[in-house]
Amino acid sequence: MAIMVGFLIYFLLIALIPIIAQMRVKSTFNKYSKVRSTSGMTGMEVARRILDDNGLYDVKVVEGRGFLSDHYNPVTKTVALSPDNYHGHSVAGAAVAAHEVGHAIQDAESYAFLRFRHRLVPLANIGSNMSWIFLMIGIFTQATGMFMLGIILMALGVVFQLVTLPVEFNASSRAMNQVVSLGLIRNEEERHAKKVLNAAAMTYVAAAAVAIIELLRLILIYTGMNNDD
């Protein structure tokens, strides 16, 4: 009974951590999406201004789809902003647009962690898709070698999550420097923009924390399997 309760608490924990992080970013964004920036610029205009100021004239700014679907595509050199941020004049929209441009600046400067993350993408995808196959085979057949292979594959995904953290925090830092130095947000708006970016960053922290916790759990299972032998 105690073991079942422990497992229940564990699964609730790894489920709630990302949910809470997502709720926080949505509530923070919704709050400051109602605060109009004094510059009166749309997210598209903010992104274009920062890109041009950094000489990134070849990077396009386009309207994406969905809520908070904002991202930078290094292959097509495109900053895609969700409709609300693309057309909106809010502090939240300006912060998010600047953050995505931060990734474009990282790309242009060959930021080391961004390059490393790009190289990890195919390995992380393979690890995420294949790890559970080997883990399940290892569990049902008690083949510790197969289980360890599953752990190694899952660890690739964990490394990807960890490398993502400095990439995202650095993009946010660049974003704040740009919007403040260019006068795109002013005074109290700076604190509001930081809250939006910090809330968004916590989603990546939550994802990394869950990945690490799950990896540690699997390592403990592997240790138990070896002890049984």
UniProtKB/TrEMBL annotation:
The keyword Disulfide bond does not apply. The keyword Ribosomal protein does not apply. The chain crosses the membrane at residues 6-25, 120-140, 146-167, 196-222. It holds the Pfam family Zn_peptidase_2. It comes from the Bacteria. InterPro entries: Zn_peptidase_2. GO terms for biological process: proteolysis. GO terms for molecular function: peptidase activity. Keywords: Hydrolase, Membrane, Protease, Transmembrane, Transmembrane helix. PANTHER family: MEMBRANE PROTEASE YUGP-RELATED (PTHR36434). This is Zn-dependent protease. It comes from Rossellomorea marisflavi.
